[in-house]
Amino acid sequence: MEIYTVTVATGTSDYSGTNNYIYVTLVGEKGESERTLLDNPGLDFCKGAVDQYKVSSPAPLGPLSLVRLEKQRYWVEDNWFCRYVKVEPPGGDKTLTFPCYRWLIGDVKLEIREGTAKTLKDDVSPLQLAHRKAELEERKSTYRWVTWAPGIPRCIDAKTEADLPQDVRFDNEKRSDFEYSLHYALMELSLKKLAIRFGKSWNDLEDFRRIFWKLRSPIAEYCMEHWKEDWFFGYQCMNGCNPRMIYRCQKLPENFPVTADMVQSSMAPRTHLDRELKAGNIYLLDYAVTDGIPTNTIRGRPQFIAAPLCLLYQHPDQGLIPIAIQLEQTPGLDTPIFLPKDPPLSWLLAKMWVRHSEFQVFQLLSHLLRTHLVIEVFCVATLRQLPAVHPIFKLLAPHLRYTLEINCRGRTQLISANGIFKRVVSTGGDGLVVLAQREYKVLTYRSLQPQYDFIDRGVTQLDKYHYREHTMLLWDAIHRYTHTKDFTTVSTGRGTLRFSFCPVSVCLWSTGSSLVWSTCSTC
Description:
Blueprint: E1 2-10, E2 21-28, E3 31-32, E4 36-37, E5 50-57, E6 64-72, E7 80-88, E8 96-104, E9 108-113, H1 126-142, E10 145-146, E11 155-156, H2 172-198, H3 207-211, H4 218-226, H5 230-239, E12 247-248, H6 260-263, H7 273-279, E13 282-286, E14 297-298, E15 301-302, E16 309-315, E17 319-326, E18 337-338, H8 344-385, H9 391-396, H10 403-413, H11 420-424, H12 430-442, H13 450-457, H14 466-484, E19 489-491, E20 497-500, E21 507-510, E22 515-518
Antiparallel strand pairs: 1-5, 1-7, 2-3, 2-4, 2-6, 6-9, 7-8, 10-11, 12-13, 13-16, 14-15, 16-17, 17-18, 19-20, 20-21, 21-22
Binding site for Fe cation: 367, 372
Pathway: Lipid metabolism
Protein name: Arachidonate 12-lipoxygenase, 12S-type
């Protein structure tokens, strides 16, 4: 009789434990152990518990391939979250760890593999190959694609977060914290409505302090003190919420007829616009992507969205400052070019409209599209195409933990037909979809890689561009780590780039206009 020591770890979040029956069977190359009920004196499988049991087999099992867990209801259904199972073979051989990190819901069986990362070429056992195939078939039926809107990345087939599998839902602590924060914000908003209704009207921007009473951090106070100043405007273009729009201007766009005389008063002594263009000290913000976007109507009032061009100058003393702003893409008598020497309120209002367009681009393109929606493609493709034993799955899984639920909540609460964007944002409704479609049409894999993005935008030498410096520190660390794991880039030989996470893996195709997953036959 062979005796194996089995250690089972229950999840640490609330409601992870169970009082249902839990059985285990060890599956080896030479056979299976007895189906064993895991039952010690006292309570088993409590939250955070690490319980140990003995499992017997009439004969040696050989190298262990799988651990089969079974849950059966006892009186009432009680879901169980298993973190991992460890198995110590007879004779003191090396203890094997079988990661799980899954919910067992209902009367179910779940087979898990030993934790060593393996690609398809590493699997030689028929048991392992069959398990790999069965796992992916189950995943593909569970995680399905759907088109939320044409022309943007596809997403998980779930109308709300309640439709998601439990394995990709928020844990209870995360959900409670999220919902508490939401309810607290709504309660605070109600109090502010009362303050506005029974207080005086907003006659001054200082009234913001009365409404946003929580903005008392040193940074917030500093921003409220300096937001009107040109140097701070330039600083926000480099290090604010959306620092990816600025690029070096080597030649003025034809639809932005700025002359040297217009901006001479903003130049440093003994220089002029043409010289600074050649020196690489002139930069541009171009919001052409917002031109002609359908606008929202809020409380019966049609909204307006500018499509500005903003010229900036790297002044040797003042830093990066705006020197000319045009609020539409087509120049003309009705589209003046605003300058710092204009009346102060005119210049301030022009800068505010640039920041308004910046908000739309940041929220819908940099945040929603490039962060949430594009990453969801990676998340769903990873779940559908890579088994849990695959090295890339192990690499990505911790970083994709809450992606699907937060995106489902965003689609239902933020960008839906009656969501927050429709109620308060100029691009709410049709505008946000059109804007996302425009950006996704020209989105390339290269633009998502910081080292190439900075080169393509010509900002590698832009002074005090802290976003670039901090980004490259993180990127280099990730790059070094992934290259130690032999993750490589492969060319297709057809003029199209194919990014492969590793020599035998799921492949991401970048066609220049879209990102498409395809399966490598050896992954």
